[in-house]
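Hi X.,

You mentioned you wanted examples for the new student's onboarding notes, showing what a folding record looks like when two proteins sit in one file. Here is a clean example. The first protein comes first, with its sequence line followed by its C-alpha cells.
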Amino acid sequence: MEDRRTAFQRLTVVEDTKRRERYLYSDNQRYMQGMISLRRPDDLDPAYLRSALLGLVFAPAQPSSMLFVGLGAGSLPRYLSTRYPRTRLDVVEIDPEVPPIARRYFALPAAPNLRVMVREGRAFIQGHTEKYAFVLMDAYFGGEIPIHLATLEFMDELRRVLQPGGVVVANLPAPAIAANIWSVLATYRAGFPHVRLFATEHPASVILLASSADLSLDPATMRQRVQQLRIRHRIDVDLGALAALPPPLGSTPKAAPELHDEPLH
C-alpha cells in the first residue's frame, strides 16, 4: 500500500486482507510501529499499548493534558481523543512523513483536542513550559534506543514538564532486543524517585512507569481506579489483569551504568 524512504527511516504499510488488519513497519519490516484492525478499529494493538494505559491508573484522575513522544500509527492518541474530550493531547513526531500516513491509513482523527507537531521530542520538551499529567515515551522501539531520550539529563527535563502527580510511561524493548535496556532502566531509577515495571502480553516489550509521586497501590484502590476509568472514560481494557501479569525482567535487574549526555567540547 505504501513503501517510502524518509529522511529518518524506511516506512512500509501492509494490509492483511484475510485478517482485515493494516500494519506500519519501519526498516524493511524489521519493526512494527503500529497497526489497526479494519473490523474493530477501536481495538488497541500492539499489545504494549494496552499495558501503557496502566499509567492512567496512577496519573491524576482528570488530566488536563497528555504528551506522546512518537506517533507511529497514532493508535493511542486516537483511542484517547474520544475518551478524554476535555484533555489536550499533544503528539510530537520527528519524521514529517509519519503523520500523513497515520491519517491516511490508520484513521488518526482531526479531533479538536488532538495536536500533532513535527518536532524532535527532546527539543520540544526543552522548549516547553506547560506541564502534563501523562507522558508516553513511544520512541524506544527496536534495538537502537535513542540515547539522547534516555539520559539522566533528559530525565531532569521530563520531570520539569510533569504536573504534580504526573506519570511518565515508557515502552521499552526487552533485553533480547536492546542490550542497553539495563542502563536505560538504571537511568530512569536514578532520575525518578518512583519507578515500576509492568509486563505486556508480548515478550518483546516492557512498560515502565516513572513519577515523583508514589506508584504503590493496594489491591482495593487499584480495582477502584480501574473501575472508575471504565465508567468515566470507557477504558475497555482489562487493566486489572494486565497489572497482575508476572513481573518482567526477573526479580533482580542487572547492574548497569547510567546514561549521560555527551559532554560539549
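Then the second protein repeats the pattern, sequence line and then C-alpha cells:
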Amino acid sequence: METLASRCIILPLLFLGVLLSVNQSGLRTVSAQDLDNVTITGCLTDQHGALIPGAYVEAVLVKTSAVRKVVADAGGRYHIVQLEPGVYNLRASSPGFAFLEKPELALIAGQNLQLDLTLLPEGVTVDPVVVTAADSPAVDTTRTVVGATVNTHEIESFPQRRVAAADLHCNKKSRAICAALLRRSEFP
C-alpha cells in the first residue's frame, strides 16, 4: 500500500523523468522568460514567389530605437527572437530590391508573429488603390439570378419550326420571346 510520503517522492521524480526525456528527444524547453518575449518569423519572396536568401531584416523598437538585425537563410526564412514586447517597425532589404517597411507592428508578450514579406524590384513603385462605397461594383454579388436580354436578331436566328400559337405557354420570364415569336409570319 502506498503511503503519502512515497507519493510525494515518486510523483516529482516521475515528472523530472518526463522533463529529461522531452529535453533529450530534441524538443526545445521553454523558460519563463520566453513567455514574455516576442518572436517575428517569416519568408522573403519576390513578386513572383521566388525566395530571397541573404536578405536583411531588422526590427526597430519604436520607444527605444533598439535595432535587431538578422539575415534570411538559404530558404528565404528569417527569425527574430527574444524581442521585448512593444511597437516595432520591421524593415527588409536586399541588393536589387526596393526597401520595404512594415511600420507600427504592435506586439504583445508571448506573441509569435508570422509575417511573410514580398520585395519588389528596385525602381518599381506601387500606387495604392483606395476603394470607397461610391466605387462599388456594378454587379450585385448578393443576387444569384442569371438573366440576359434577347434582341430581335437573336430571336430571328432561332431554329424555325412550325408551332401553333395555342401551343405556346408564355409565362413572365418568356413573355418577350413569346411575343416576338407570335409576331413572326410563320405562325398560322
